[in-house]
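Example record

One chain of 103 residues, shown exactly as stored in the release files.
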Amino acid sequence: MNRPLLILTLLAATGLGACEQQPAVVAVPVAPAAAPGPAGPPGAPGDQGTQGATGNTGATGNTGDTGTTGDTGKTGDGTTVILNPPPPPPAETPPADQPPPKN
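Predicted structure tokens for this chain:
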């Protein structure tokens, strides 16, 4: 008895589910928008803004390319000039009443 009842229930559910049903569409009336009125008078000017913060320092640039090699110098005439540097100035001696400075 259970099988015929089960089969009958499945057939009834399939038959009712196969019917096409159109969804109900309800048109909602749109309320008319109110038209804006004339513009009012302009407001008072605002206060002056404050000075902005100073920005960060940018990154250091890349090193430039090496320059080109200079031209070869002229050949000398055979005379050699040797310059001696001047002698260093004499060391300052402390006065007799003061001891020498400590290093």
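Notes: The two ends are 122 Å apart (CA to CA).
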